[in-house]
Amino acid sequence: MDGAAQREDLRLSADVVIVGSGAGGGIAAEVLSQAGLDVLILEEGGLRSSSDFRLSEAKAYPELYQESAARQTVDKGISILQGRTVGGGTVVNWTSSFRTPADTLNWWRTEHGLAALSEEAMRPWFEKAERRLGIAPWQGEPNANNLVLERGCLALGLRHARISRNVRGCWNLGYCGMGCPTNAKQSMLVTSIPGALEKGARLLTRARVDSLSVDAGRQRISEARISLLSADGLTPTGRKATVAAAHVVLAAGAIGTPAVMLRSGLADHAGLTGKRTFLHPVALSAALMPERVEPFNGAPQTVYSDHYMHTQPLDGPLGFKLEVPPIHPLLAGVTFPGMGEAQAGLLRRFPNLHATLALLRDGFHKESRGGAVQLRADGSPALAYPLNDVLWEGVRRSWLAMAELQFAAGAKMVFPLHERARPATSWKQAREIIGGLPLEPLRAKLVSAHVMGGMAMSDDPARGVVDDLGRHWSWRNLTVVDGSVFPTSIGANPQLSIYAFAWRAAAHLAQALAPRSSPSVS
Ligand SMILES: Cc1cc2nc3c(=O)[nH]c(=O)nc-3n(C[C@H](O)[C@H](O)[C@H](O)COP(=O)(O)OP(=O)(O)OC[C@H]3O[C@@H](n4cnc5c(N)ncnc54)[C@H](O)[C@@H]3O)c2cc1C
Ligand code: SF4
User: How many whole angstroms from 518 Cα to the centroid of ligand 2?
Assistant: First the structure.
């Protein structure tokens, strides 16, 4: 059903209504519908498929991303990429797949009371997701962009490895961020959402959940209230829908889910709804290489290094993971420093450009408290994420590490993505330039594609919003299954963590709602 096509208001009902069809919502829909439950999925984005994916940035960003890929934190210090289409972020992500690191799980067990989340207990859920989504180490040769990272690691003796990807029959095109045109990427759009629909689930697209209403006496959510959106996917048509359901599953992403709760006025005991939102803020360093790199060509991320994750304690100065981003002209134009002729000169050398990224692990250091989701006057969400000294120190340290690595890999010129950065032609010069850069929002270009937290799990309602199965501590017919449940950042690209946690939460929910038709779970 397409919300844009509805000529009347709708009144619907279901056993379970799922808000959002991304990583968490897709998995939950498949697991719950397989248990025989009547599932209705609500998605504010439109339904697009491989024939719509034309390797075009200009087409993909407005159609497939939140705020046309121009979402930013309140002070504009960090640009945020999130999906907004059937399949959510999984349609546009870069396919890198990591299990939740053991030290993150241990931290959650010791610091957040999540005793059930041992590596051993989580293993079966990771294995299920890996099997379902074809997640396996990438067997092809890394593209030239990734080989720069590998070469730098080898030259400096840094531990590095190949990345696992959720693909089947990948054509190695490199346009994952614009939607996979070959259906090789095992996103929710081509796996769990169709799997759920085959089992009888229904999908209502261009349907934005405004709020949830409650039966306060019974501490239960009674229905979801929805604005139907026109074909542009943004403007309300004026038509409304309501869905009455025995159980509500929130999976609108780590900004969208707290926003639904805030718009509904549904607080939690700890006052943590929409708080402690983490981003893995990403600092970037670009380099001009003597060889052609063609950073737009080939599987985008196939090599990583966790060396700098382990050079300090987990709760010490922020650790960072090194990877490379694919580089396409439109996003490069708004991210790379300089304007006019200076930037045009750089972009003329596009085929020789390389970039390394450092994904900073936020949420463990006591001063790394993340951001907070707020509502604008029209009810749309915005994320305030203050940039403090702990973060800036990590950014500068990561620029230094990346510059050293890029020169070790043979770079002729290196520049961190900062408006004031002059290009350096040697590692010695880079050290001087990076050491003197003012660390301020808007001058340093920081980005994020990993939004996590804001509805944190804890064993204690005084310290978290949901329990380890995503069950809300106050509203017992409400379960959260997206990236918002994580109490800190993951410390690795989060999609596989979300799949596994959503699968575990949904399997337990299926057991509770349909015990006769669901496999037992421990
Ligand atoms: C460009 C890009 C590259 C990435 N690369 C990787 C990668 O390589 N590896 C990795 O692990 N992760 C990657 N990620 C991150 C990963 O895709 C996300 O962490 C993951 O998709 C988040 O899952 P989620 O369920 O929390 O939310 P999402 O997947 O974002 O899904 C939320 C859905 O809810 C919908 N929604 C929001 N509000 C409402 C509402 N009120 N009503 C109805 N629907 C609503 C949204 O439109 C969206 O479709 C990338 C993300 C991006 C954007
Ligand atoms: S690299 Fe593979 S997964 Fe990505 S868009 Fe190309 S074919 Fe699809």
Answer: 34
CB-based pocket (< 6 A), ligand 1: 19-25, 42-45, 81-85, 88-90, 92-96, 177, 208-209, 251-254, 256, 260, 301, 449-450, 482-483, 493-495, 498
Q: What phi and psi, each to the nearest 5 degrees, are found at residue 214?
A: -125, 155
Per-residue pLDDT at 516? 76
Which of 360, 361, 365, 278 shows the shortest CA–CA distance to 315?
365
Please state, in angstroms and rounded to a whole number, the distance separating the CA atoms of residues 382 and 159.
Answer: 37
The CA-based diameter of the chain, rounded to the nearest angstrom, is 69
Three-state DSSP at 90 gives helix
Ligand 2 centre from 471 Cα, in Å?
35
Q: Which ligand sits closest to the CA of 243?
A: 1
Ligand 2 centroid, distance to 405 Cα (angstroms): 27
Q: Enumerate domains of the chain plus CATH numbers.
A: 1-47+85-133+186-268+455-522 (3.50.50.60), 67-81+138-164+281-449 (3.30.560)
How many CB atoms within 10 Å of residue 74? 15
**Segments of the chain with pLDDT less than 50:** none
Side-chain half-sphere exposure of 467, counting CA atoms within 13 A = 17
**For the chain, what percent of residues have pLDDT higher than 90?**
92
> Cα(135)–Cα(163) distance, rounded to whole angstroms?
10
Q: What is the pLDDT, as a whole number, of residue 522?
A: 64
Centroid of ligand 1 to alpha carbon of 499 (angstroms): 11
- What's the sign of the alpha-carbon dihedral 396, 147, 302, 327? positive
Q: What is the ipTM of this complex?
A: 0.99
* Residue 155 structure tokens: 């030259």
CB burial class (10 A; 0-12, 13-18, 19+) of residue 348?
Answer: exposed
Contacts of residue 483, defined as CB under 8 A and 6 or more positions apart, other chains included, come to 23, 24, 253, 254, 450, 451, 452, 453, 494, 497, 498
What is the 93 CA–ligand 1 centroid distance (Å)?
Answer: 8
Q: Which residues of 482-514 are buried (b: 16+ CB within 10 A; e: fewer)?
A: bbbbbbbbbbbbbbbbbbbbbbbbbbbbbeebb
pLDDT of residue 335: 85
Pocket-forming residues, ligand 2, beta carbon under 6 Å = 95, 167, 170-176, 180, 182, 184-185, 299
